[in-house]
Design a protein that fits this description.
disordered C terminus, 8 helices, six-stranded antiparallel beta sheet, alpha+beta, 36% strand, globular
């Protein structure tokens, strides 16, 4: 049951919603569409489901060209960010509705609804209406309805975005388990890089309607093929600056100088863009190649046991994300250290040409 997009694109008038896209999702795979709001994730899912038809290209499923096939004739389930349940149906009838449309026998409906309710801890609520449920219970009901029909393709469009933190964490842990024994293709859209890393599987990074990279999630995180993919897969944003390689050293516009070590040592002399993730920029001199960096503090944040500092550097904004509580005053000069052994280097066209020692935190 492979799903393949062959040059599929979507345009409305002169506005491109999806650039020509080639993607293949394997049976039993968990796939993530990662990108900011308006990156094209929902539109791409609608093309996969048959809710939208590509302007060009084709959609193939299980060896068949299904490009013109309406969604009603496809074995597809989709869960949206909003809690979409039938308000006048009980939880039982909401979950059972796809099976009733398929004219499944009553005994099979009872069996399947019971299994889904047990799996998603909805059994005590089967007689309730959606209005009597919490937000998390409503989304569980929507997920149960998507699972009950045993669809070949399950599309999850930011299904946890409107839930509180505790419920999001709970369902993040549950989702991979729910699909572990199913031979369906799961496609999950999110704006959060952390969520993609938690789920693993394969990730397609998206920017303005284009898929910039697709592959194993952790591989893309460690070695993005371009600066654009690295920026999509970084939260807080990846720090970037221009630099120049001359012999065995790099220099930046502010006069900082550091050794070209690891894969970067073999690069030709010339201009590059350095990218380094915020957790390699710290108040303490750690790592194998700490280089002093400094700048005026713009914003400080405390997140649990982490300190996040936004500071001005080289005409832009850099971010430090460090363990522990580190006090910096807004407007003051922050003196920090960046472990440039972990940096990535990009050519003038944005392509990755050297990656660090892969001590990336996941």
């Amino acid at each position: 049951m492979t799903l393949t997009l062959k040059g599929a694109s979507k345009r409305v008038g002169n506005v491109v919603h999806i650039h020509p896209t080639d993607l293949t999702f394997e049976p039993g795979s968990f796939n993530i569409l990662l990108g900011s709001t308006l990156a094209g994730k929902t539109t791409l899912m609608q093309l996969m489901a048959g809710l939208e038809r590509p302007l060009e290209g084709e959609i193939w499923f299980d060896g068949r060209n299904v490009t013109g096939m309406p969604v009603q004739q496809r074995n597809v389930s989709m869960v949206y960010q909003q809690f979409i349940n039938y308000p006048n149906y009980t939880v039982y009838e909401n979950i059972a509705s796809p099976l009733r449309v398929a004219r499944a026998p009553d005994d099979l409906i009872r069996k399947r609804v019971g299994e889904m309710a047990e799996l998603l801890r909805l059994t005590p609520m089967l007689d309730r209406l959606p209005s009597a449920l919490s937000g998390g219970q409503q989304q569980r009901t929507a997920i149960a309805r998507a699972l009950v029909k045993d669809a070949d393709l399950v599309l999850l469009d930011e299904p946890l975005a409107n839930l509180d933190f505790k419920l999001r964490e709970e369902l993040r842990d549950e989702l991979p388990r729910l699909f572990a024994d199913r031979n369906c293709i799961v496609v999950y859209a999110t704006t959060e890089p952390t969520e993609a890393l938690l789920f693993g599987g394969h990730t397609a990074t998206m920017f303005e309607g284009a898929v910039t990279q697709f592959g194993p999630t952790r591989e893309i995180y460690r070695k993005p093929n371009s600066l654009l993919s690295a920026q999509v897969f970084s939260d807080p944003p990846i720090n970037v600056m221009s630099c120049e390689k001359q012999g065995e050293h790099f220099t930046d516009s502010e006069g900082a100088r550091w050794v070209a070590n690891g894969p970067a040592s073999s690069l030709s002399d010339g201009p590059y863009t350095l990218g380094i993730r915020p957790h390699f920029v710290s108040p303490a001199a750690t790592g194998t190649d700490p280089v002093p960096v400094s700048g005026r503090v713009m914003v400080t944040e405390l997140s649990g046991s982490e300190s996040i500092i936004h500071f001005a550097k080289g005409g832009g904004t850099w971010v430090s994300q460090a363990h522990g509580i580190h006090a910096f005053e807004v407007g003051a000069e922050a003196r920090l250290h960046a472990d440039f052994a972990q940096a990535m280097y990009f050519a003038p066209d944005g392509a990755l040409v050297a990656a660090g020692a892969a001590r990336n935190r996941e």
